[in-house]
Structures are given as C-alpha cells and as structure tokens.
TrEMBL record:
The keyword Transcription regulation applies. The lineage of its organism: Bacteria, Bacillati, Actinomycetota, Actinomycetes, Mycobacteriales. This is LuxR family transcriptional regulator. Residues 739-804 form the HTH luxR-type domain. PROSITE patterns: HTH_LUXR_1, HTH_LUXR_2. It comes from Rhodococcus gordoniae. Transmembrane segments: none annotated.
C-alpha cells in the first residue's frame, strides 16, 4: 500500500523573516485568528532563535502576565517573540501591542486570498481549476489551517466538506460558550456583547471576550454577520438540539422584550424548528412589508413555528404566485379547491382567482375560464370583473356577461377599481369604441399606480393595454405604457421587444430578447419569446435561424390554447410555418383564432392584426385566393378603425401584386402609409416585392427606391443586420458599419444589384430582373466590393445588409412572375 506523503510545510511569511533580520535582539508580535498558522511559525523559528523568549497564545494569559510581557518588551535586553489572537477589548492586550509597536515589530497573519489558496494547492501538487479554487475558498473562508485540511482531503480522495466540518467541530469543542455565540450568529443574531451576556447568562466581561473570540475564530464571513460556508450548521450540531433550543428561546425572549426582533432572525429561529406563538405572529407581521419572495419565506416559516396553516393558505398562495413560485401556489390552491364544500367562500374565491392566474401564466386561458365558470355567479363576488375579463378573452362572451352581472358590491379599493376598469376596457375594445376602451385601460393603470397590485391576476393591466396598442398600431402609446413600471416584469420586457420588432427596429428587439431570455419561464412568456425569435429570423431573411427558432417553438405551439391576448405570437408562428412549409402544424390554431374572433363578433381592434398576418401568409404561400377573405375582413374593419383601413389598403395592394397588377402609385402610398403607422418593415416588403414583379424596369427601380427609403428612415436609421453568420469576429457590428452607411454610397444601378444579390439571387437571375448580362452583374458586384472594402463575399453581404439592402426582397427567378412559391416571405 502506497503511503500518503505528509502535507508540505508552509514557508515562514516574508514579513516575519524581514522583522527578525532587521531587529537585534528580535522583538516580534504575531497577531492572527485561529488557524492562521501562528503556532506553526513559532515552531519553525524555535531552533533558530536561541535564548529568545517565545510565548504562544498570549490571549489566554492573565492581565498580570500580559503586563509582564509588555515590560519585558520595553526593558529587557533579550529578545522575545509572542503570538496571540486579537483581543481588542482588553486594555492589557492593547498595552502589549503598543509596546511591540514602539520597541519591536507587529506582524498580522490573516486569511489567504483565492490566489494564495491556489498557490497552496500547487504545493500539494494539486492543479485546481478556477471554479474549484473559488469553491474551496468559500468553504474554508481562506483560513490557512482549514485550507490545508481541505487540500489534504482532496489529495487523498476524501470528503472535503466533511473533513473541514470535522476540523471546525474539534475547534469548537474547546469552548461551548463560543460555540453558542457562533450558533446564534448562524441563526441571524448580531455580535452584541450586552445581548450575548443576557442570552448566555455570562458576565459582561466574558461576553466581550466571546465577541473577540468569535471575530478571531476564522469562522465568520467577511461581514461578521454570518458563518463561512464550511462552518454553517456546525456550531448548532456541536451544541445539540436541547442546548440550541435553550439559547434560541432566550434570544427570542430578549429580542421580543426589546422590540428588536428582525425578519432574518425570526426566520432563522423558525428554521431550526423552534415553535412559539409570539414568533409565529411576528413572522406573519413581517411578511406584510416584505418583497414577495421574502414574504413567501416568512409565511412558510410561520407555519412550523405555530401559525394556523388554514388561515394563512390564501396569503401563502398569493405571495408564492407573486414570487414566481407557481408550483407552490398551485399546491396550496389545489388543496383549498379540493375541499371547497367545507372551505370559507372567500378563500374558495381567492383560490380560484389565484389558480386561474397560474393557468393564464402557463398559457392556458381556457382553463382559467373553466375555473371561473365553475366558481359561478353565486360565489364570484368581487372577482366578477376579473372573471368576465378572462371569459371574454377566452371567447366566451355569454359566460362573461353572466358573471359580470353577478358582481357584488365591495369597498372601492384601487385594486377593485382597476379590475372593473380593465373589464370595461376589454369589453369596449371587443364590441364598442376603441377610444373608450383605451380610456378605461389608462384609468385602470392609474388606479393601480406604477407598482401595480400584489394580488394574483390572470394578466396585468399594462400588458392588456399594451397588447391593444400593438393590435391597433399605436406603438408609441405601447412604449409609454410599458415604460411605466419601475421594475418591469418579464412579460412587459417581452412586449417592449415586440413593440420594437413590429416597428422595424429589429436590432433593439433582438437585444431585449437576448437580455430577457434567461428569465423566461412560464408558457405564456415562452410563447411570446419564441414567436418573437421566429419573427426576427423571418424579417432578417435568415432561413437557418428561422428553422432553428421554429423548431425551438414547437413545445409551446403544442401546448398553446387560443385566446385574444395570444393572437400576435400566433400570427408570427403562422408566417414562420408557411415560410418553412409546415403550415399544417398551426392550421388548427389559426382556425381556432378565427373561430374566436367570429364568436366575439369580429372585433376590428383585435382582429385586424390577425387578418394582416393572414394577408402575409397568403403572400408567402403565393396563394392569392387565400388572401381574399382576410382582405374582406380588413375592409369591414376599416369602417371603424383607421389602423384597419391602412391594412385594408395594403391588403388590396398586395392582392394586385399577386395578380401581376403592379400599380406603382397605389403600392407606394400603401407602403408609405404602413410605415407611418409603425410598420416600416411591412411597407418596405410590399414595395420590394412589387418591384420584383414589375415588368417595367423604371417602375421596378422606383419601387426598390421606395423600399430602401422606408428602411433607411425607419427606427435606428438603417435596416436590421443579421451579424451572426457573416460578420467577422474582429469587425464590430455597429460603429464601422454606420460609418460606411451613407445614402448614395452606391449608384442607382449598383443599389439595385445589391438588393437582389443580398436577397439570394444568382448573377443570372439578377441579370434577368434588370435586363443585363450576368457578366455585367459580376462587374457591378466587384466594384461594390472594392468600394466597401469587403474582404470576402460573406463580409460584402453583411455590409450590404447593414446598409439596408435586400432585407425584404424575396428570392425569385424571372419566371416567378408567372407563379411559383417564394423562398422567403
């Protein structure tokens, strides 16, 4: 069996050797906490110091003994080396330190940094990766002796955490009072000598010494308000349950009498299993002003501390939902609803509302509607407006009206007022006046204030209001609404990204999506996130990204239930599916959405956007007949909303384009009007597609210029850039491209060639469109490449995209004018 080599000796610190070399006789005081290696330094020096007096652990000496040491330092001709833990409260220790400072040297031995820990690992012939070093440093707090213990365990394939814990346990067994102090700190107590004297029932002087000992133990974190990772839980285990509970109860009584119990300490006391009615009551009180996540922890701790779980059930579910813990909220509400017959009606109502909110967050508004219908008019009470809102959004107008009429009178709180205004606003948006609808929703926002309500709602007022704005082309209004909250939700941030995408600022939308991606969890948010990614890829004409984004969206597509608030993401997924030839995957959802709108009486404010997607889907599939019903629906909606009128004119223009009737004036007006209502990408696409189908070169050139102008005048002043596949890694995406982006940098003919080349056409196909030879096209491309300084074809394409060329031109051959399916919608 191979023997394990002994741990390597630690070198004597340079400060120590320097102090000994520069003073004769040597007078040195080593000050350091437990485990910093003071005794090891003395042991290594003992043979070399001869007659020098050596004293270890001076902090254990009496006042008289310390005074004798101080006198020796000042008066004796012989050398002296002393080690001690810091004890700043002791006057005699301060006197000794002053004596060494005046007549010798004081060297402080502290904890190791992570870098020093890594160096020590190397001496053990261990090569640790940076994350391993950081983990080991957190576990040991950088205390040298504990670091060595951990490294030895690593070297011998032992359990590192257990080895460190055992070393700490042995350290604590020497002083159970100190162990009690550290256990109290672990619970959340402060190092207050007066409080410790009362709790531990020790004299004030002993309490002061215990505070100093705790600070010198090496087991406190940097803030001295918590224990290191390796020490946490060890003092309590050393004390044992009986002794721990005894000091914990005395601490609780002391804090309650003084009125100084904190939420952190109260939660810590409950965590160890302490039961006390006063503790339970204070935990519940602390939850009132806490953040949702903190409140959830406090209420969860209150139950084992002695609070009535039934009395707290609704409140716990409410804060769990607000904290984002939907599983816990659902568990609580399910238990309440399972015994609805014997549960107070107010609790049943609240549990239904919370459960409906959970379902809505998970993209199942139909289940939310089922829950409210189950609750019924007899029990819905003050939640009638929310119930009616959900039922209407789920396409159940009769049930919504039935429950709305059952509303019970209650206190006109801000939350109740906002719920009523939300329901009125949605009802007006579906079957009334859009101006009144927005007025009601704006008032609902004002009623709630900037922070909204902590009560669980199926959806927020700002999200519903912003969605109505997006459906109506009011992008500026949507931005203003979504910018109200000081701490916007993930849903709000996703809707901001949608606002930017619909407005043509794809770069801004992509940046927001990237920033929020890690926080998107609920199915409803995932639906909007994946549909946003599909929409961005489609608009960037990036087939590879579109395929990847579409595949990533399949799980949410499979679980999606159609509702009024999910029509925008459905529309984007519909177009992505058509582009990839997988429209069958969403056909049932599209049919469900159209049925929903029919059931609601074809509300123009909500239906126009979906019908516009239908127009684009017909265009992408090159099926003019599919466009007709959507164009008709838009024409009907145009009688009541200006936004629908714009879309209707654009749909009519598209129908003409698909039929080969390129009316340049009508197309230009439709494209520019689309841009004016916040749809520049759609306007540029219409003009670009019409240019590709125009038989007259002059008309085609003019329409290409219209498309380019709309892109350049859109958000950010340039078309979106798909930098991922083509931009060289050493080429920044933004500033250099902006420097090259100058209107007129290319000639008119070169601009036409650039548009078509970036769209993916071959030189021969470009030549067919522009009635020039493929060789001439090649010469144009060569001149463009030289002018822009592109080093490769991929860089050239990236630069041209950045300048606004080709983002909206579908790949078509000359023969496509007579039919055929476009490669990119």
């Amino acid at each position: 069996m191979t023997s394990v080599p002994a741990p390597p000796r630690r070198p004597v610190p340079r400060e120590v050797t320097r102090a000994l070399a520069t003073s004769a006789p040597p007078r040195l005081l080593l000050v350091g906490g437990t485990g910093t290696g003071k005794s090891a330094v003395l042991a290594s020096l003992r043979d070399d110091l001869g007659d020098v007096r050596i004293v270890d652990d001076a902090h254990r000496m009496t006042a008289a003994e310390l005074q004798d040491l101080a006198d020796h330092v000042r008066d004796a001709p012989t050398g002296i080396v002393v080690s001690t833990e810091p004890r700043p409260h002791r006057a005699e220790m301060r006197s000794l330190t002053a004596a060494f400072a005046g007549s010798g040297t004081v060297v402080e031995l502290g904890r190791w940094t992570a870098r020093e820990t890594a160096g020590r690992a190397a001496s053990f012939e261990l090569r640790l990766a940076p994350p391993q070093v950081r983990a080991l440093h957190r576990l040991t707090g950088g205390v040298p002796n504990l670091v060595d213990t951990a490294l030895e365990a690593l070297r011998t394939d032992g359990d590192v955490r257990h080895a460190v814990g055992e070393a700490i346990r042995r350290q604590l067994l020497a002083d159970l009072d100190l162990t009690a102090v550290l256990a109290l700190v672990d619970l959340g107590a402060a190092l207050d000598p007066g409080e410790l004297a009362a709790v531990l029932e020790v004299p004030a002087e002993r309490a002061l010494d215990l505070v100093d000992a705790a600070r010198a133990s090496g087991l406190l974190g940097a803030d001295a308000a918590s224990l290191t990772a390796g020490a946490s839980g060890v003092p309590a285990a050393v004390l044992g349950r009986h002794n721990l509970f005894a000091v914990a109860r005395r601490l609780l009584a002391t804090r309650i009498d003084a009125g100084t119990l904190t939420p952190h300490l109260a939660r810590g006391l409950a965590t160890i299993g302490l039961t006390d009615p006063h503790l339970a009551r204070r935990l519940v009180e602390f939850a009132v002003d806490a953040t949702p996540r903190e409140a959830a922890d406090l209420l969860d701790a209150a139950v084992p501390a002695g609070a009535d779980p039934d009395a707290l059930a609704v409140r716990r579910a409410e804060v769990a939902f607000a904290a984002g813990d939907l599983e816990k909220a659902e568990q609580i509400t399910d238990r309440l609803l399972d015994r609805a017959d014997t549960t107070d009606v107010d609790d049943v109502r609240a549990a239904t509302r919370i459960s409906a909110s959970i379902a809505a967050h998970r993209g199942m508004l139909d289940r939310s509607a089922d829950l409210f219908e189950w609750l019924g008019p007899e029990r819905v009470g003050t939640d009638a407006p929310l119930a009616a809102t959900v039922l209407l959004a789920a396409g159940r107008p009769s049930a919504a009206e039935h429950l709305r009429g059952a509303a019970a009178s209650g206190a006109p709180t801000s939350s109740a007022s906002a719920a009523r205004l939300l329901e009125e606003g949605l009802r007006e948006s579906v079957g009334g006046d859009g101006r009144i609808a927005m007025n009601r929703l704006a008032r609902a926002l004002t009623s709630l204030g900037s922070d909204g309500s902590l009560r669980a709602w199926p959806d927020t007022v700002d999200a519903v209001a912003a969605l109505l704005c997006l459906h109506s082309g009011e992008l500026g209004h949507a931005r203003a609404i979504l910018g109200r909250p000081e701490m916007p939700t993930v849903r709000n941030r996703l809707l901001v990204a949608w606002t930017e995408m619909l407005g043509g600022d794809l770069a801004a939308a992509a940046a927001i999506a990237e920033a929020v991606a890690s926080e998107v969890t609920g199915q409803r948010d995932l639906l909007f996130f994946h549909a946003l990614q599909v929409g961005l890829a489609r608009r960037n004409a990036d087939l590879g990204a579109l395929t990847m984004r579409w595949q990533a969206a399949q799980s949410v597509v499979a679980e999606y239930s159609v509702d009024l608030f999910g029509l925008l993401p459905l529309g984007e997924l519909w177009l992505g599916a058509v582009r990839l030839g997988e429209s069958a995957r969403v056909a049932h959802l599209v049919a469900g959405a159209r049925a929903l709108l029919t059931t609601l009486g074809e509300p123009p404010l909500w239906g126009a956007a979906l019908h516009w997607y239908g127009v684009q889907a017909a265009i992408a599939a090159d099926r003019p007949s599919d466009l007709v019903p959507h164009a008709r629906a838009l024409a009907l909606a145009a009688e009541t909303t200006a936004y629908a009128a714009v879309l209707a004119r654009a749909g009519h223009a598209w129908l003409g384009v698909l039929r080969g009737e390129v009316d340049a004036t009508r197309i230009r007006e439709a494209a520019e009007t689309l841009a004016s209502v916040g749809l520049p990408w759609d306007g540029a696409k219409l003009a670009g597609e019409a240019a590709l189908r125009a038989a007259d070169t002059t008309v085609a050139t003019g329409l290409l210029q219209v498309a380019r102008t709309i892109r350049q005048d859109g958000p950010g002043g340039r078309a979106p850039v798909d930098a991922a596949p083509d931009t060289p890694p050493n080429e920044p995406d933004d500033a250099p491209l902006r420097a090259r982006e100058k209107p007129g940098a290319l000639s008119e003919r070169e601009a036409q060639v650039a548009d078509l080349v970036v769209s993916g056409l071959t030189y021969r196909e470009v030549g067919n469109h522009l009635y020039i030879s493929a060789k001439t096209v090649e010469h144009h491309v060569a001149r463009i490449r030289r002018r822009l300084g592109a080093g490769s074809r991929s860089e050239l394409l990236s630069l041209l995209r950045a300048m606004g060329h080709g983002a909206d031109v579908s790949r078509r051959t000359h023969s496509d004018r007579n039919g055929g399916k476009p490669a990119c919608p």
